[in-house]
Amino acid sequence: MILRRPVMDIESWSTDYPIKKESWRTVLALAYQSLGVVYGDLSTSPLYVYKSTFAEDIQHSESNEEIYGVLSFVFWTLTLIPLLKYVFIVLRADDNGEGGTFALYSLLCRHARISTLPNGQLADEDLYEYKKEGIASSGRGLGLRLRSTLEKHRVLQRILLTLALIGTLFSAVSGLELVVSKHHHQYIEVPLACIILVFLFYLQHYGTHRIGFLFAPVVITWLFCISAIGVYNIFHWNPHVYQALSPYYMYKFLKKTQRGGWMSLGGILLCITGSEAMFADLGHFSQLSIKIAFSFVVYPSLILAYMGQAAYLSKHHIIENDYQIGFYVSVPEKLRWPVLAIAILAAVVGSQAIITGTFSIIKQCCALGCFPRVKIVHTSSKICGQIYIPEINWTLMLLCLAVTIGFRNAKHISNASGLAVITVMLVTTCLMSLVIVLCWNRSVVLALSFLFFFGSIEALYFSASLIKFLEGAWVPVALSFIFLIIMFVWHYGTVKKYEFDVQNKVSLNWLLSLGPNLGIVRVRGIGLIHTDLISGIPAIFSHFVTNLPAFHQVLVLFCIKYVPVPHVKPEERFLVGRIGPKEYRVYRCIARYGYHDVLLDDVEFEKDLICSIAEFIRSEGPESSRSSNNTENEAKMAVIGTPSTHARGIKMWDDEDSTELKEVNSPEVPRKRVRFLVPESPQIDRETRAELQELMEAREAGMAFILGHSYVKTKTGSSLIKRIVINFGYDFLRRNSREPSYASSFPRASTLEVGMIYHV
């Protein structure tokens, strides 16, 4: 049996050759590519910042104090948040090259042991990506006390998880609002905007790699246009507009406009929409490439564009309608239509990046058990981060259409996206302050300085966005609240199910009391039992043998576990151990994956699994059979890589394949022959050879996959809220979510589902 053909060769990927160590030519190529993927959103912000700011809260006057004040706010906001905070500080907090809210959360989980799912193992800490060079856990002073406090109090752990989920949700919801706002041009009516949205979401199943080559040229052309128009407007209308970059104009602006100026900050906030993408999309590029692209291309172009608009408006004070305060009015009339066409293309590029980022967010949530399982399609054979999720794609499309048709007013859409954007940044600031103490081992004073400096700026914008709650800002809050309930219900049910497994697992003494035959008939073949447990024997096994007293001659308890790192190297994929004495032929195999890894789609998983067990048997040595402490033997697990990672390890060949290596052949049977190809050295003792022979015979007889099908119900006497959450909420999500991806990989003819009721 061979699982479905791989979509991409994940085993060829290796963290030994990270992007960061590539040449300058590669770095510049990545910087070029990042312009189309990362900065499509941020680069189109000049389309709506001034228009949203002057929508109704403030008026453009002859004194120009308002327009100069807005320009000063835009300049310093772009300088302090994207440039100083993200480029110079937050990008350094990558999780082995990966970024985003969940990357910060996974860093904290590793350094403070605050994961709410207790399936961690000491062996996980030996993973290549578990710790970074030069960064150690905080081990003294206030940092140690802070870490101990987080580890002791589950309430604080839940608050931290809630923060991460809120940041993730608002990031996705802000994408929804920004997709709508980018197609809400003044020259595009609602029906045409809806058609563009439907077409955009329809293209998603083709994958971003098919149209990605268009992204960077479009954004570069757009940045060149807005910067060139900005330079023209500066020299033609007001060469002295640079004076407005002084912070003094912010003071004059707030002094004159007072409450109206404070409320208009919600529009100014839109100048940094998309800044979070620099961190969220870090895994596709590198720190240096993203820094180069922003510092030398995006940032200067945006500053020139905003200065050019301000220079034009400073000489034009007659306002006939709302559209006079906007981007297109400052474009020379002869260039207006060509620039409009480029702007629409740039908006589509920015929207594409937002949608792709939402797919990545949902994948991370699913991997960490915080979102119901969905279908994940990998659209690229080379880049594992390029994925497509049909359910999320069409849900986003329906929500975008609903917002477009329901609001019709660009001002309300801007209010909604502004609140979502600043919420994500506040969450990043809070998590980043913890990373500074717990992961970077820096002083608490430095962390508090970071928190208060950037937190106060973002809190000011947050308050201005929140005041417009009833004018559109309620949309991201409502959508995030709905998704947050879904995620908490799923996570709560998942944790309770795991706790039931741990509390009801079968003791090793029960297995030993059954004898080598386990008290049942042992038939030829391999029985693969999937379980979420990393130790002990699952209750599903005793439930199975009690009702059907027969099982296979080789029993494998198999667990798929996500660890809080982006990737697990192929040579560290499996943890293999033995349960009970050798003659029992019971093994435990744990396959470890990072939250960005592709699960089981890209390897001949069956061969990898059998070869990992065979390699464990060969490397275990004869002395293990003399050990009398079976509990200690169960706790000992060896790290075994996939066959492609160890050239001198055991290989498995089917049928007539041959090799010069020494062979252990099975007797002639009327089935497909299987061979283990064993290196000549070290020599294998007779007992090990016999165990390999039996494993090979069992493999020839076939494999059966036993999957647990659990029905989670509340115990008698549970509270009303718990009964609603588990019996209705979690049960509804479980019945309507996708089955695990590994389950769909197993052949139906060899799969057996064993049902159990979990009373939690």
From TrEMBL:
Keyword Metal-binding appears in the UniProt entry: no
Instruction: Please list the residue ranges annotated as the K+ potassium transporter integral membrane domain.
Output: 30-512
What is the membrane topology here?
Answer: Multi-pass membrane protein
| Single GO MF descriptor | potassium ion transmembrane transporter activity
List GO terms (cellular component aspect): plasma membrane
The organism's superkingdom is given as Eukaryota
The subcellular localization recorded is: Cell membrane; Membrane
Q: Which InterPro entries match?
A: K+_transporter, K_trans_C, K_trans_N
Q: Which Pfam families has this protein been placed in?
A: K_trans (PF02705), K_trans_C (PF22776)
Primary localization: membrane
Where, by residue number, does the polypeptide cross the bilayer? 67-89, 159-180, 187-205, 211-235, 260-280, 292-314, 335-355, 387-407, 419-438, 444-462, 474-493
Alphabetically list the UniProt keywords: Ion transport, Membrane, Potassium, Potassium transport, Transmembrane, Transmembrane helix, Transport
Ranges where the K+ potassium transporter C-terminal domain occurs? 525-759
Record-linked NCBIfam families:
kup
The job of this chain, per UniProt, is described as: Potassium transporter.
Q: Which family does it belong to?
A: Belongs to the HAK/KUP transporter (TC 2.A.72.3) family.
Protein name in UniProt: Potassium transporter
Q: What is the lineage of its organism?
A: Eukaryota, Viridiplantae, Streptophyta, Embryophyta, Tracheophyta
